[in-house]
Q: What sequence folds into this?
């Protein structure tokens, strides 16, 4: 079961909330789960539980607390509009400060990994470029990853994209990433669209989602998860 804790970003002293879950069984490391634009919704809670069940201590920061404490939204037009508004208002320095605070909370107990979805996929790529102490990251369907592809990386990253994603041209993103970082694995999931890690969503194919999760677990294991 996840509980809510508070953390403080060093760059501005802002206190934000995060879901926290202890690992089940032997601890393999820490995982920071970065939300989509819809806040810490049911799908984030499900993902936190999945990672804890795999043996990871998990943090899921509430990334838009500066805009609206405890923000969550439905996956409908109004929720999308509000989520985009908060994402645009939340400067990258704030997002990186919050992620760094999560890394600092976890790093004394083993390697720290980051996994993020949509908005979180972009933030995962950016964190791998800017934050200190990340062992590896897994970026799912980040809309700005192609534009950030040339950023130098401090941590290895794996990228997951849906072939049917109407918002993100998978082949273009893969080409941009691998032109700048040929060492980065980029996988395109043929049966899935945007948000395919969210079990039960229209664009989610369960086989694709489970394959991407296993690839992420294997990638983290290759970079220090015990």
A:
């Amino acid at each position: 079961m996840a509980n809510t804790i508070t953390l403080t970003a060093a760059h501005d002293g802002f206190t934000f909330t995060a879901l926290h879950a202890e690992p089940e069984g032997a601890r393999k490391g820490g995982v920071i789960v970065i939300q989509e634009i819809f806040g810490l919704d049911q799908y984030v809670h499900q993902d936190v539980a999945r990672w804890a069940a795999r043996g990871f201590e998990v943090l899921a920061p509430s990334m838009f607390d500066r805009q609206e404490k405890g923000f969550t939204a439905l996956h409908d037009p109004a929720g999308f509009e509000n989520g985009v508004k908060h994402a645009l208002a939340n400067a990258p320095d704030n997002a990186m400060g919050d992620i760094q605070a999560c890394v600092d909370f976890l790093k004394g107990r083993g390697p720290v990994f980051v996994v993020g979805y949509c908005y979180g996929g972009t933030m995962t790529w950016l964190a791998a470029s800017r934050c200190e102490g990340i062992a590896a990251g897994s970026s799912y369907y980040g809309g700005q990853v192609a534009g950030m592809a040339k950023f130098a990386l401090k941590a290895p990253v794996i990228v997951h994209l849906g072939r049917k994603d109407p918002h993100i041209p998978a082949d273009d993103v893969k080409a941009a990433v691998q032109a700048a970082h040929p060492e980065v694995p980029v996988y395109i999931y043929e049966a899935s669209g945007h948000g395919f890690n969210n079990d039960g969503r229209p664009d989610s194919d369960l086989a694709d989602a489970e394959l991407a999760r296993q690839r992420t677990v294997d990638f983290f294991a290759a970079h220090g998860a015990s």
